[in-house]
Amino acid sequence: MGQPFIGSEALAAGTLSRHELRRFHTAVLPNVYQEKRVELTLLHRTQAAWLWSHRQAVVSGLSASALHGAKWIDDDATVELIWRNARAPHGIKTRADLILDGEFRHLAGVIATTPERTAFDLGRRGPLRQAVARLDALANATHFKIDDVARLASRHRHTRGLRQLEAALYLVDAGAQSPKETWLRLLLSDAGFPRPTTQIPVLGEDGYPRYFLDMGWQDIMLAVEYDGDQHRTDRLQYVKDVERLEYIQRAGWTHVRVLAEHRGYDVVRRVRGAWDALKRR
Hints:
Number of strands: 12
Number of domains: 2
Number of helices: 12
Oligomer: single chain
Distance between the termini: 63 Å
């Protein structure tokens, strides 16, 4: 209910009359309709695009990543399809890419690339940092294996972007909870710090994890965390954050808090200061 459908099929089956089709539905793509009362999401747009392809395309890229549960993808993102059609409507990107058996599956009413093939496509396109952030989100949702993506890539030796894919896979971390956390982790690595560990558990008195730190270095007990807007606008969350920080510091952790207003060089300077102070102990 509420899913896109092919108008001509509904008319032929007698499910709707032409009057009902025009009055209660809107054409979102040629011959593909959606109920007017339904607010279009990326899932709806993806299903509509697949129907527009006469059910022949394979959903790929960010669209496939969203189907696999990845977060931080806008509802107005371009729907990507692997299908030979150079005249796609607005909002759809078609690619005449080679796709092999085992690289796609049925998912959410469409055919989409597997997590491994989706990672293969995301990692080799766009700026490297953007590719890593998108891979982080997909890895967080699916926990795809780097080696599996590398094996898939070995079957596409003449595809563009393989060198970037290799670099992006080296940097991917499923522990990233947001694109900003990916940005922060890469910033610290680029500044010369050892690669930080993500989602570090801080144990409670019962010996079980009570909190998880965004990233840091356990050997010197230095944590670095990014605080989003919800920490500022949600009073209840703010109170919880204060209690959490107090506990973390009592447990012996040095904590560097990063906000949206902090510039990259400032973050590096603060982390460097904390790092040097801990190393001198």
